[in-house]
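Q: What structure does this chain adopt?
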Amino acid sequence: MEYRRLGNSGLKVPALTLGTGTFGGGGELFKAWGTTDVAEATKLVDICLDAGLTMFDSADIYSQGAAEEILGQAIKGRREKVLISTKGTFRFGDGPNDVGSSRMHLTASVEGSLRRLGTDYLDLYQLHGFDAQTPIEETLQTLDNLVRAGKIRYIGCSNFSGWHLMKSLAVSDRYGLARYCAHQAYYSLVGRDYEWELMPLGLDQGVGAVVWSPLGWGRLTGKIRRGQPLPETSRLKSKKSNDAGPPIPDEYLYNVVDALDEVAKETGKLVPQVALNWLLQRPTVSTVIIGARNEEQLKQNLATVGWNLTKEQVAKLDTASATTKAYPYWHQAFFDRNPSPV
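A:
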């Protein structure tokens, strides 16, 4: 397993991280993701550790805490061998202070995650989203206090816009507070918006990408092709818009899958392995979160590392997945003294 620096921090993380959204299966949304129990999770952790994958990502809202509890049981007795990443900010309770990035909610969230995971520290703690109602200074001072208390090693954020992240980094620099070294963001061959602003920001400020949904909500598994019906288990059939992901034109998706098919044949790899390998070669990417409903899926995803696409194959996938950037990014591309990093 390849290890990479998490942004400009001193922490080394594996190129692949196992996501635990499939652990627990609590509620309609997470039940559709998976229903992995403690015994199954323990087997998955065993396989990961054997392959050198030592980082596991969760969140308090995954199955309302059950995912963290199951992960805690699965790593019991081997805490020192793993890196734990989890998240908070989204609503976790019915009270007025059970949501957001206030001092009250973040402190309670971290304490709850520590208890469910059965540990006294978190290697990486990330805000699950940006809270516009809480002063950034309050949020970062709270996180800094938790770092100084030894309950968090490193901090990150997730789903921030460019100005959210840059303003937060400026506040940290101004007051000497702990700084975000990671941004957990959506990025895939059919979702390249991350490249427009967040990637240049990450390069400039030393923020590493922790990529979620790298297969575009299941669109890049190789099971979706032109002229074929959606698989019965596809998340794209979900009536919940947040579970199906952003809409993508059918022909655009088919063109990307066609290119993936070509490269898969050239490399002798599976379509999702090619899509994941493409991500691992992108600037700022520190680790890619993979999911697995079972051992077979996990082993297939683990085979993403240990080889690289050629420059020609990367270019083929770049061309097939290219889209027109939003303003002002398409306009900035005309200024050759300020070239885009991608």
